[in-house]
Design brief:
Blueprint lengths: L3 E7 L10 H13 L2 E10 L8 E5 L2 E9 H20 L13 H15 L8 E5 L6 H7 L5 E5 L7 H4 L5 H8 L4 E4 L2 H13 L4 E2 L4 E4 L2 E7 L6 H8 L2 H13 L4 E8 L6 H14 L7 E8 L6 H21 L7 E4 L8 H7 L2 E4 L8 H8 L8 E5 L12 E3 L4 H13 L2 H17 L2 H13 L3 H4 L7
Parallel strand pairs: 1-2, 1-5, 2-4, 5-6, 6-7, 7-10, 11-12, 11-14, 12-13, 14-15, 15-16
Antiparallel strand pairs: 3-4, 8-9, 9-10
Helix pairs in contact: 2-3, 3-4, 8-12, 9-12, 10-11, 10-14
Length: 467
């Protein structure tokens, strides 16, 4: 069996369950093959300290990391990855900083990864590269002579061709994807955006079985919606920390129904729009005001960036205004928490909540939606309100699908969810549970690696000119 080498911006120790289902799933394959996980160490050092590879053994898995200098980190991570690619890929051209010259640092770090990774590879290794930070990594590896099979998975959405084309050098990014043997996306929509781009912009030739030919190479593209480890999350739901949270929430809110939102503080998550919809619900349903409370957890995220600071102030203002206008001495409509809540406690909060609001403006998948479903009591489940712009909406069609920009429609969905009879809640929940069990994180991992193994071996060894 070939060894799996996982490459990502940050690595996770697969022995630690707090790392989540993704690390657990990848850890299983890495353990089985005696694999390696390569990425940034998370440390920023002086350039003079060097960029030697650091090694740690996690059972049979080898963890290999490199440090970054402050200059490289700022240009590669803060600058190009999160100042250009993240906003554009989430359709926010207005927030992208195209003029700062970050692309040189982005390429420089990908070249660093390639130089440090190549000597560690074995001839029959299979490489799996993850996410938007490392789009050009395969091209850099090919330029150094790497002939192993390499797959790439994009965890965030891919925008339509016209939005993607707003990036200076967008053609360079897409050409870089042709250095991979397999490119995976979260949804059919993302895959269609890729296909439209390569056909119209790169004049790629469509072959059978999802393969495209351009730039002297053939790449296979497919949709591989990521899932959760349902069994692992069920165990987490019934663990002491989660059960203690569940019992406490049921006691403290015995007279009210809970709504819950759990997100990173990010402009892609639609948090202000969600608050306005909840405010609309309270305005239109005065008889239900004291019967429902929204608990919104917004974990800190990149708070040194002005766009996030503005979002934080807007969200705090909205929550304060809602509580000030509608609250009573014994009831606050919104419980807003701006800090990270331990993963072990979240299943208890999900289980105690009648409604989950998962309403991003754009999201690659959004696993909170699936975790909420997995945490429910099947006999008396809650209702998932899900944005149609989340990748999860392609799979979870039995959720209440909403347009988060439509305040009135989302407010109406909140009312419908709170009043939905138990039989309908059960039917919707059962259908969605069948889906997330069938397409769990293990299916995602196995299906991607199986598809990568089926790519043509002669294509992996094709020559590649440096971009």
């Amino acid at each position: 069996m070939s060894r799996l080498v996982v490459v990502s911006n940050r690595i996770a120790d697969p022995r630690k369950t707090a790392a989540g289902g993704l690390a657990v799933a990848l850890g299983e394959v890495l353990n089985n093959t005696g694999g390696m996980w390569f990425g940034w160490s998370g440390k920023i050092v002086d350039a003079a300290e060097g960029d030697d590879v650091q090694f740690e053994q996690a059972g049979p898995v080898r963890l290999a990391t490199v440090h970054l200098s402050q200059v490289d980190h700022d240009a590669f991570y803060l600058g190009y990855s999160n100042g250009v690619l993240w906003p554009v890929f989430h359709y926010r051209l207005d927030l992208a900083d195209f003029d700062a010259g970050y692309i040189a640092g982005y390429r420089r770090v990908n070249q660093l990864f390639a130089r440090k990774l190549l000597p560690l590879l074995k001839p029959d290794d299979v490489l799996w590269v993850h996410d938007y930070h490392l789009i050009p990594l395969a091209a850099e590896l090919r330029a150094l002579g790497c002939q192993q099979r390499i797959g790439f998975f994009l965890h965030i959405p891919l925008p339509p061709p016209l939005i993607l084309a707003a990036i200076p050098g967008h053609d360079w990014l897409i050409r870089a994807l042709f250095a991979y043997d397999l490119v995976g996306f979260q949804s059919r929509t993302d895959l269609e955006h890729f296909e439209r781009y390569v056909e119209t912009e790169a004049h790629a030739q469509a072959l059978e079985d999802g393969r495209w030919r351009a730039f002297g190479r053939t790449v296979k593209a497919g949709a591989f919606p990521i899932g959760i480890d349902v069994q692992e999350f069920d165990q987490l739901t019934h663990a002491p920390e989660a059960m203690e949270m569940y019992e406490r929430m049921k006691r403290e809110y015995s007279r009210r129904k809970l709504l819950v939102g759990v997100d990173r503080l990010d402009y892609s998550k639609g948090l202000p729009q969600r608050m306005r919809a909840f405010r609309e619900f309270l305005q239109k349903n005065p008889d239900l005001r004291q019967s429902a409370t929204l608990i919104q957890i917004a974990s800190p995220s990149r708070e040194n960036v002005s766009a996030y600071t503005d979002l934080l102030h807007e969200l705090e203002s909205l929550c304060g205004a809602i509580n000030g206008n509608f609250g009573e001495l014994d009831w606050m409509p919104v419980r807003y928490i701006h800090r990270t809540v331990a993963r072990a406690r979240l299943p208890g909060l999900f289980r105690a909540s009648r409604v989950a609001l998962v309403t991003p403006l754009r999201d690659g998948m959004n696993l909170v939606a699936k975790e909420y479903l997995a945490a429910q009591n099947a006999d008396d489940p809650g209702v998932l309100i899900l944005s149609r712009f989340a990748g999860a909406a392609e799979q979870l069609k039995e959720a209440l699908l909403v347009n988060p920009y439509d305040t009135e429609n989302t407010a109406a969905a909140i009312l419908l969810a709170l009043q939905m009879p138990v039989e309908e809640r059960r039917n919707r929940h059962q259908a969605m549970m069948r889906t997330i069990r069938a397409y769990d994180v293990h299916w995602w991992c196995d299906s991607f690696l199986d598809a990568l193994a089926e790519t043509d071996a002669e294509e992996s060894g094709a020559s590649w000119l440096r971009l």
